[in-house]
Input
Amino acid sequence: MQTLLLFLTAILNTPECTGMESIRTEYHNIKTEEQLDHFIDLLEEINCDKAWPYMASVIMQKAQYCILPTSKLKYFQTGKKYLETFIQQNPGSIEGRYVRLLVQSEVPGILGYNHDMVSDSRYIKEHIENSGLPKSYQKLILKNVTKATNNIN
Output
């Protein structure tokens, strides 16, 4: 956990982003704890501030591999704090809002972390075309946003 926190501090001061394509691809392929750990290693190699939402999300995902409920909650709350801080500092980040939407669509309702789904979905749909993201990633985002928001109603 300490390594993750140090990494997050370091990426805030790194303006250059190489390897975001790998981050975007690998993020959607995480299915096991080993893949999660590999993804964290990849994030550490890339060292990019745009990767912060993805790192925050994987911190939250670490909770599913903990046994103790207190550990689960600690990982979730830490990741949530970092994700919310990133979005507060970067309100126009499509990727930040996208990752938050994905997280909020997957976490149990008892955690009460689903209040931004509608606004994030709307923001993404309205601004994605001018986001500068690769067209293929824009399509994937829109597909996943539609799938996630279909569960709201």
Q: What stands out?
A: The chain is about 65% helix and 0% strand. Residues 69-89 form the longest helix (21 residues).
